[in-house]
Amino acid sequence: MQNLYFDNAASTRVDPRVLDSVLPFFSDNYANPSALHGPAQAAHAAVEEAREAVAELLGAGDPSEIIFTTGATEANNTVLNTFPGQILVSDIEHPSVRTAALASGRAGLIPVDGSGVVDEDAYRAMLANGAGLVSVMLVNNEIGTVQDIDRLGTVAKEAGARFHSDVTQSIGKMRLCLGDRPIDYASLSGHKMHAPKGIGALWVRSGAPLEPFLLGGSHERVRRAGTLNVPGIVGLGMAARLIIDEGEQDAERMRAQHARIVQEVIERIPDCRLNGQPDGAPHIISLSFFRTEGESVIINLDAKGICCTAGAACASGENRFSHVLTGIGLPEEWLRGTVRVSLSKFTTPEEVDTLIAALEASVSSVRSLAEFPAR
Fold first, then answer.
1. pLDDT tens across 64-102, in order?
2. Residues spanned by CATH 3.40.640.10 within the chain?
3. Phi, then psi, of 75 in degrees rounded to 5
């Protein structure tokens, strides 16, 4: 049975062209790019070419502002650990920001409204008490809400704070032009943009402070120690180039598929709601089914060869729900029945057809077994 993959917000298939670009750096040119001999310099040139591609994708001012990391988690922690004072993060941030900020004991959680949009009045009031850094992700990874980081960044600047955004879920879905925006730092992960796992990048605007998270070498201009992951970096660079060339058309196709799934599922399945914004990110769809066990729906879909994930995951038997869904105030009778569908540039119309029919059948099956009560 072939799996139909609708969990692209978790990880994406490596583009075959990215894979082709990576393979020579495992076996043909495997030199350490920090050395001075010919093969090392060839590897170094490939790294710098990738750096230029990532900078162009982000709209950064200078390729030297790009630091290669293992992913957004490392990049996010690096930025947060740079600031010893108060940090403000949105209540629905990815755990690599939210958990790290709370662990510092210096964090304030900015509330959001029912769509996941930052409450600006509360945000301004919190900034008035002082903060060194604000971190708000551009696109939420669970519900696809898009934040107005231009406005939020401007407000932070007016209050004397630096501004960071995890832009991972926006890559390939919208143009960024970070150099022209009131932002100091941005993080991304390669495996969300059809590049390999274990590679990512941190953009640091020239002049913004940064304390290295990893010490022990002069790599990345003494900003991140450790031998460079040349195959991963080359793959990230190729993925960036493909998005520069093809990303706009890919995003349009995903947006059309997104609209079709939402419309047909809500029409065909009673007591269903969309979480987040109707016009949010083009690839993330968070659906909740009233008084229905989402995990059972996920298992039912998996039996049909369809890969999705629950937006309200329980861990180790504990009744612990997604902080994103509780943060937007989703009642438990809806929260338990949440399913996240996430698309990619490889998603086909035929796969969408299959998904819609399978969702309808799976929800109906789970409800019938649970004697689903009508509202």
1. 999 999 999 999 999 999 999 999 999 999 999 999 999
2. 16-243
3. -60, -45
In the chain, the amino acid numbered 97 is: V
Active site residues: 314
β pairing state of 272-275 and 284-289: antiparallel
The whole-number pLDDT of residue 111 equals 98
Looking at 3.30.930.10, 3.40.50.1240, 3.30.70.2190, 3.40.640.10, the CATH number of the domain 16-243 comes to 3.40.640.10
Q: Which residue has the tokens 């009131």?
A: 182
Alpha-carbon distance 117 to 115, whole Å? 6
Residue 29, Cβ neighbours under 10 Å: how many?
17
357-361 long-range contacts, Cβ below 8 Å, gap at least 24? 358/301, 358/304, 358/306, 359/265, 359/269, 359/287, 359/297, 359/301, 360/265, 360/268, 360/269, 361/300, 361/304
Which superfamily is assigned to 4-10+247-369 in CATH? Answer: Aspartate Aminotransferase, domain 1 (3.90.1150.10)
pTM exceeds 0.90: yes
Say if residues 273 and 287 touch (Cβ distance below 8 Å). yes
